[in-house]
């Protein structure tokens, strides 16, 4: 593991300004235990702020409202990055989207290389959307546009 820095480097900033997926790690509001969920509605506003949107049906909304400490795990640059920060509601509900969502800003406190010593990722994980492609593109467009305006 490497020394922590308090903001995204140019490569991570660029990666998080286009569609990608990450693991969002929160503290479960009911059990106090750790949780990890894959999300793709994430956008780097600046080197020190990452914005994400979560469907209100998700436990993640309450988790971040009760305990704002989060870790975002990003796979890229041949490694695994752990972005630690504090979540704050940016807009609730997120405007101009077809269902109730909550938009959070994550103020970055530390970015670390979280891959074990001597290893390098050969490729970043990829995903495919397995539902209606047109519906997915429309919803993603609405969510990302609303996130950028929030």
TrEMBL record:
This is Pyridoxamine 5'-phosphate oxidase N-terminal domain-containing protein. SUPFAM superfamilies: FMN-binding split barrel (SSF50475). It comes from the Bacteria. Pfam families: PNPOx_N. NCBIfam families: PRK06733.1. The lineage of its organism: Bacteria, Bacillati, Bacillota, Bacilli, Bacillales. Residues 10-95 form the Pyridoxamine 5'-phosphate oxidase N-terminal domain.
């Amino acid at each position: 593991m490497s020394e922590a820095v308090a903001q995204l480097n140019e490569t991570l900033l660029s990666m998080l300004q286009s569609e990608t997926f990450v693991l969002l790690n929160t503290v479960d509001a009911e059990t106090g235990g750790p949780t990890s969920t894959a999300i793709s509605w994430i956008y780097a506003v600046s080197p020190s702020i990452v914005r994400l949107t979560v469907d209100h049906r998700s436990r993640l909304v309450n988790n971040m409202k009760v305990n704002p400490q989060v870790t975002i795990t990003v796979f890229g640059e041949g490694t695994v990055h752990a972005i630690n920060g504090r979540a704050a509601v940016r807009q609730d509900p997120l405007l101009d989207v077809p269902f109730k969502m909550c938009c959070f800003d994550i103020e970055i406190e530390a970015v670390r290389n979280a891959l074990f010593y001597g290893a390098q990722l050969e490729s970043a994980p990829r995903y495919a959307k397995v539902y209606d492609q047109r519906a997915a593109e429309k919803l993603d467009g609405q969510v990302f546009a609303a996130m950028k305006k929030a």
